[in-house]
Amino acid sequence: MRVLSGVVILIMYYTNVSWAAYMPINSNNAFDKTMATYNVSKVLNSTTNSVDVAAYQAYGPPYYAIANLFVTGGNFVYYTFSVVYVFVKYWRPLKKAFVGMVVNTLQRRSIYTGFRDGHTRMMRGAYPEVPEWWYGLVFAFGFAISVAACVAWPTQTPWWSILAVTAVGAVLTIPWVVIESIAATGISLNVIWQVLPGIWFPGQPLPQLVLLMLGGAFEQMAGGFTTDLKYAHYAKLPPRAVFRGHVSACVVNCFLYCAILEVMLAYYNSDNTLCQWDNKEHMVCAYAQSVYASTILFGAFGTNNMFKLYPALPWLFLAGALLGLAWVAAETYLPRFKTAVLRARVFGAGLGDAARDARYAAFERRLWDPAARVLACLHPAIALSGALNWAGNTNLAYATLGIYLAWLFQFYLKRRYTAWWGKYAYMVFAGLTVGVAVSGLVVTLVFSFGAGKNANLAWWGNDVSTAGLDYQLYNNNASLVVSGRRRRRRGW
Ligand SMILES: *[C@@H]1O[C@H](CO)[C@@H](O)[C@H](O)[C@H]1NC(C)=O
Ligand SMILES: *[C@@H]1O[C@H](CO)[C@@H](O)[C@H](O)[C@H]1NC(C)=O
């Protein structure tokens, strides 16, 4: 899906969909009408921090590069698709989870009530459970501090929007965790907090940013917590210890993140290029750039104006929902349709039993079974999320390494050396992850701060990622039309 969507993006770029050819193809920036990076200071009133309409009319709207537009639209499809798909397909477990949560809390029953699987039998009674009021306390603290922060600082964000963040999070966190546990890829709450604040507070980028961060944090915290609890359940760790560990890690992280920001400003911004494509230390801040661009486009420019500029976008929500319904319906009814209609009516019309069975068997063998085999290895949510990894300077090189490893472990080793795979695959996975962290530490300490600060290690592995046009494209105004490489296409 990643490759396929790349081809779609290329086609859209070369046919100049939505002025695409005037911008870099894979950038996650917002661009102005001269196709330079959008300078939001030019349209903001510096006292009120909201858009000055006269200044905006002089400067013009912001534009998305095509990969970013594709990913934004694709996220809309993915969003409604996965919500509908998960709610319809997993309605029973979801209902059980929601009802169990309320009933068990009200009646002060164990959270294991109604589960009889092996893991639960081993966990039940072995350790004291985390009482519900501990969670209540964490929630009350988070809620109070969010409201206080929004009200006490000039964020332009009214306190009731925290209620909205809570409500959306409460409804969508469990479906999110369902997809996450099946597919290791979630439903991004970012989408809803991209769109809604821009409808409520058009012309004001600040509430957009605040709500995007708070809404995303709700999802990450709740989802991360659930993931930890799940691992703890499988590994038979005491739930209270996991709770304490997670909460203290959050507290420590609050201070760490502020410290990291200070360190980045102190060490990587000496030439004032932090978060720009030509930063010497490659601190290009891909995610921060995406957030900045979406804050400009949805917040400052306003969601409704954004939808006027790109009229296909709102329809993609509908397309995703319909696709989700269609997919579940197909999963449920196609097998029945096959026997009831195809076997009985289409292949059987006017034929004897033997002739009908022969024709039907041939149809199954040639058409139905191969198609079913292909579809069976395609989880629609994973496939869709695979298509959405473009934009933000993450070209195909970011994915291909993963493909080699995935093929080696999940295909070759799993089939050929199943016992070895069963014993060591997860260890190797953990080892590689730790290896990345340790090498990141070493590289940062040695080459950013230590003896290797000015070392110049020129070899293919270091240079190849910045050698091509795809790196230069990032934020550098290298585009199909303006670059002069393809002047004959200027007819656009
Ligand atoms: C953005 O616009 C402001 C206000 O016009 C100006 O002071 C600033 O230099 C501009 N920044 C860039 C990067 O062009
Ligand atoms: C910003 O807005 C305030 C309040 O509406 C207004 O008094 C001021 O003139 C504006 N500043 C600029 C530079 O337009």
UniProtKB/TrEMBL annotation:
Keyword Transmembrane: yes
Highest rank taxon of the organism: Eukaryota
Membrane-spanning parts: 63-88, 133-154, 160-179, 247-268, 312-334, 396-413, 425-450
A Pfam family per the record: OPT
Molecular functions (GO terms): oligopeptide transmembrane transporter activity
One annotated Gene Ontology cellular component of this protein: membrane
A biological process term (GO) from this entry: protein transport
Signal peptide: 1-20
Keywords: Membrane, Peptide transport, Protein transport, Signal, Transmembrane, Transmembrane helix, Transport
InterPro entries in UniProt: Oligpept_transpt, OPT
Bilayer topology: Multi-pass membrane protein
Location in or out of the cell: Membrane
Family the entry assigns: Belongs to the oligopeptide OPT transporter family.
NCBIfam families in alphabetical order: OPT_sfam
Name this polypeptide is given: OPT oligopeptide transporter protein-domain-containing protein
Record organism: Coniella lustricola
